[in-house]
Predict the 3D structure of the following.
Amino acid sequence: MNNKWKAIGLCLALIFFITLVGCSQNADNSVEHEKSTGQDNKGDANEEDKNSAQDNATEEDKMDSEESSVDAMKEAVQDKISSMTMEEKVGQMLMIGFEGTQVNDQTRNFMQENHIGGVILFERNITDSKQLLNLNRELKELNADSQDIPLFISVDEEGGVVSRMPPKIVNLPDSKEIGDHNNSELAYQVGEAIGERVNAFGFNVTMAPVMDVNSNPDNPIIGKRSFGNNKEIVSKMGVEEMKGIQSKDIIPVIKHFPGHGDTDVDSHLGLPVVHNSLESIREMELVPFQKAIDHQADMTMVAHILLPEIDNEDPASLSKNVVTTMLREELGFDGVTITDDMTMGAILENYDIGDATVKAVQAGNDIVLVCHGDENKLKAVHSLTRAVESGTIKEERINESVERILLLKEKYNLSSTSPSNIELDKINQSSEEIIRKLEEND
């Protein structure tokens, strides 16, 4: 029996020993697992930190690269300006219109002799698609023969009541109809359609969108061209249309700063006077323009309207209080400013166009728009040149404008090449789709 119990005890001891060793191994394995898991978690955290740091570094590198690219562009533009004659600089600050459906000798000579930086086409210049395509090609070739700075070729293409497209192009709806639907996606699509059609014909600038709040029902000039009488809707629709235009590599021009919506006189015929206070203008008219500027507006057109509470002598287009103090300093706009047409009644009925051109540049405008009359164009360019030669306008002031103009041309990579053909069906398809969506939502 003793031997039996001894054997049983020995077996129990052996079992206990094996169990003890197994537990110890499990405990060791558990510790190792915890260590391993901790290392893995730490590794994951390190990997996340590493990825985050890489992302930040990539973003910083991207920003640095963009800043470097902008700096390089500015440096190249400044080098270009330093090599330009005063006549070449002044020429960049003129945008002109002309008569006829072809470039006649007088227009050709004027553009080449004065190094004109931009042209605008109207209905009088356009007969059909092929003719328009050839005309824009001719303008670009003419410009390339005399200077290596590409030409702004612009058009008033808003859609609706203001459209310059040739026959067979389906017109887009008025801005008011877009505003009534208050559909941001649709407004962007309209911008795309505008950009697509003007790009197809060789334009690179469109005088749109209209950012005026149509607050005066008796307004004879804005009306359906505005997205409406609500500043928020005008802001939202206008910004989306502007972005749609930009997406097609076309320069949009927001207009008519600081707001033409509360006028009761057509500035083509006379000088509108708006007696609103500065505070009222800030709370209403300026809101859409500020929104557009906040979303990288490229060019702003300044209106011929008199605002006695801001400047009781000169209209906005000739007022430093409006162009420099309000638009540039208060709203923070650093893009290109252009006057409305200086041959409109609001100017010609009250000023000599040469004097008005000088005042416009002194006010802070970069481009003076002269749409009609060979004599008007000559007086504008000669008056501005003489003003610089006499010291009335400093050369540094001219350089500021030319730099902004050339930077914008570089930004959009303007060139002297033109489309070779027009896909009318594709252009019309965009318009028809927009019209169909409007009808479906009515």
In short: Residues 1-39 have pLDDT under 50 and may be disordered.
